[in-house]
Specification:
The chain has about 325 residues and is an alpha/beta fold. It is about 45% helix and about 15% strand. It has 13 helices and 8 strands. The strands form 2 sheets. It has a 6-stranded parallel sheet with strand order 5-2-1-6-7-8. It has a two-stranded antiparallel sheet with strand order 3-4. The model is unreliable at about 10-30 (pLDDT under 50).
């Protein structure tokens, strides 16, 4: 009798537990699949706050890119020219040593899909070296307007078509030299790539993307191919007013939401550094600090900023294609 009673109680409890489990299974809500409700859920927003932005993005073909930024971010960190000559060597940037260890730690953060280092890599007869100024003729018009001896750090104009302007620097980052090597504290983890720039003796390369040809999107270093698929580009390194700034401007031109972390870069000159940051902001880029960027990267305000940037830059790939076609035609006709 007791055994039968015990069995009945166990059976009743089991039935209740199964029923409750089934009830939980059937009533639990699966996450929404449509973009509108996914965004609403992620940021705790109403339909009225999200739908107009999604419609605007969709109207210019940028909704998928923005949703990738929000839900499947692929962030690329560009570490620009953290080399011995720019830190302690022949062309050292003031206070550059202050950012070595912070950048070394930044590289290790798990927020990056990839980290790419750029490396100035000049041949000994490079056009940017003051020591080589006599190797190539200067533009006659420029010479007539600038009598006297040429000085270090002066911008001169070399004779060619079109005339080529170049700042004359001390010899730096010569291929194979200790000065061209990365600072010993800057490690290169497995997901890190290295691109070399300034390898053509006839032309300089401030941007990590393209040489200083003066022709839009020409003289590629190969970086453009490496960053494809990125939802955001963050730029740090040396120097703020030259290679960091021009890299950021080209990144924006290519249609990537781009941020300079100002606490992770230093300028050659404070005034030109601030001018460059202003130019980057005017072109739609962001200037932030590591802590602020980290705190805001998954927030709604930053998501809205990226959406506005993508809307403003809709069609950039098509413009890039047209520019390249025009460049090829121009070269053929010359």
């Amino acid at each position: 009798m007791q055994s039968a009673l015990r069995f009945s109680i166990i059976l009743a409890l089991s039935t209740t537990i199964v029923a409750q489990s089934e009830n939980i299974f059937h009533t639990s809500k699966s996450p929404p699949l449509d973009p509108l409700h996914r965004v609403m859920l992620k940021f705790s927003l109403s339909e009225q706050e999200v739908l107009p932005l999604l419609n605007k993005l969709d109207s210019v073909g940028q909704q998928v890119n923005w949703l990738s930024y929000v839900f499947s971010p692929r962030r690329t960190l560009l570490v620009i020219d953290m080399q011995n000559d720019f830190i302690t060597g022949s062309l050292k940037v003031a206070d550059a040593e202050e950012i070595v260890n912070p950048i070394a730690e930044l590289i290790k953060e798990d927020v990056w899909n990839q980290v790419i280092n750029s490396q100035d890599w000049h041949p000994t007869d490079h056009i940017s070296f003051f020591s080589n100024v006599d190797l190539r003729p200067l533009d006659e018009t420029w010479l007539s307007e600038h009598p006297g001896n040429v000085s270090m750090f002066e911008e001169v104009v070399f004779k060619r078509y079109p005339p080529y302007a170049q700042v004359l620097w001390p010899d730096h980052c010569v291929q194979g030299s200790q000065g061209a090597e990365f600072h010993s504290n800057i490690t290169t983890p497995k997901q890190t790539s290295v691109i070399q720039k300034g390898t053509n003796p006839m032309i300089d390369s401030y941007s990590a993307y393209f040489d200083n040809t003066g022709i839009q999107f020409s003289g590629s270093t190969g970086l453009r191919e490496l960053v494809k698929g990125s939802t955001e580009v963050v730029v740090v390194g040396l120097a703020m007013d030259y290679c960091v700034g021009f890299t950021s401007l080209h990144s924006l031109e290519l249609g990537y939401p781009t941020t300079i972390l100002r606490d992770m870069t230093r300028p050659v000159d404070k005034h030109t550094g601030e001018d460059m940051l202003g130019q980057v902001k005017r072109e739609g880029g962001q200037v932030s600090t590591w802590n602020r960027w980290q705190n805001e990267m998954d927030g709604w305000e930053r998501a809205k900023e990226v959406a506005e940037f993508l809307i403003q830059n809709a069609g950039v790939i098509e413009r890039y294609r047209l520019v390249m076609i025009a460049t090829v035609l121009a070269l053929i006709l010359i």
